[in-house]
Amino acid sequence: MDTPDAKHSNIGFKPQSNPAWTRDELILALDLYLKHRDALPSKHHPEVQELSRLLGRLGRALGLSESDSFRNANGVYMKLGNFRRWDPEYIKDGKTGLAKGNKDEGLVWDEFANEPTKLAAVAVAIRDAIEGQTATLPELGGGDEPDIEEAEEGKVLTRLHRFRERNRSLVKAKKQEVLKKHGRLRCEACSFDFAEAYGPAGEGVIDVHHTRPVHTLKPGEKTKLSELVLLCANCHRMVHSSRKWLTVEQVRALWRKA
Ligand SMILES: [Zn+2]
Ligand SMILES: [Zn+2]
After folding, report:
1. Which letter does DSSP use for residue 15 in this model?
2. Spatial CA neighbour of 231 closest among 180, 181, 166, 169
3. At what angle do helices 23-35 and 46-62 cross, to 10 degrees?
4. Which residues are found with C-beta within 5 Å of the ion, ligand 2?
């Protein structure tokens, strides 16, 4: 049998120790789902077991759970079954899939199911980070920031993005480059200049934002200064204010319009 039986649905016995699936986990599960769309693997399948182990690591890295039962193979298997109900290929014959999962499954499905290349790239980037190939624990364990909306790419890559754009030496190099060229630091979206507004105390004050989504960076690829932009705190906040992070051009257009 290929699909989890509805009577084994996980409704009603959600142990306290297991928090709702994060977007990152759903992305990884959807990636596995689409590889096996025609016939879902059992909980004994090596890839299900492997994803279960990986999610355990992710749970510890993000501080979601220390529990050994977190995302066990059965939970992963169930989650694949949850995706069934979003799959038009599956439900077209009147089948329904597991009735209830969490609402983010539908969002992740809508955002990624028809973009397999992007989905695969995001899944690889999350994996690489959790496995320690592109990220370290302090980078991932930084916690969520109240003003920063989690990116479409999920928590892991959001934290990496933020950690990297606050890299002191990179920030310093970017500011020096701009100062050398233009003699002043201005927001690239709204032209705000802290030194102009606040006098000498505002000199050198400005945020740096990294314009490339983390999943488009190759492992070990160094951040280029040309991929960094200077933004005032307000415009930077606007960039990160919705899940689909805005581009600098979009923020500039909003500012002009207003
Ligand atoms: Zn600005
Ligand atoms: Zn940013």
Report:
1. -
2. 166
3. 170
4. 165, 209
Q: What span, in angstroms and rounded, lies between the C-alpha atoms of 185 and 172? A: 12
In angstroms, the CA 7 to CA 245 distance is 40
pTM of the model: 0.84
Work out the number of other CB atoms within 10 angstroms of the CB of residue 115: 11
Q: Which residues of the chain have pLDDT under 70?
A: 1-17, 97-101
Q: Which of 231, 225, 224 is nearest to 245 (CA)?
A: 231
pLDDT, tens digit (0-9, with 9 covering 90-100), for 153-167:
999 999 989 888 888
The alpha carbon of 56 and the centre of ligand 2 are apart by a number of angstroms equal to 28
Give residue 76 CA to ligand 1 midpoint distance, Å: 43
Ligand nearest to the CA of 167: 2
CA dist., res. 6 & res. 128, Å (int): 34
